[in-house]
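Example record used in the benchmark description.
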Amino acid sequence: MANSMHEMLRQDMQCEGLLECFHGLKHLDKMCFKVLVQSDEPLTIDQIAAEVDRERSTVYRSVQRLVQNGFVQKEQINYDEGGYYHVFYPTSADEIADEMQRTLNDWYAKMGQLIDEFRRKYDDPQMAALEN
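Model output (structure tokens):
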């Protein structure tokens, strides 16, 4: 991963890189998300684990990160004779993109405030010397 914003802007970033950039998702998280997006129906953890060739517990943790970040939805399916299991399916691309846009707007506003603070603090060299 890049160390500075300048380095990040010079990289050839793909749209999937947004998942890592905005939410710190790992490679396995992105693999699980891709499996869910490509599926025509919701999948169980066991089905996802088989597709990505990883242990069930590892995939469960990855899918939980996706659920917590709003990329994946979880649904409980009840058996007629009692008991249940969970299936997972991706959140719509529009919902995910809208949330990333809100996050970017919040970040942009925060950076603007920090830049203004920097400008005020270092506009007067004597004040900057006193604060250090």
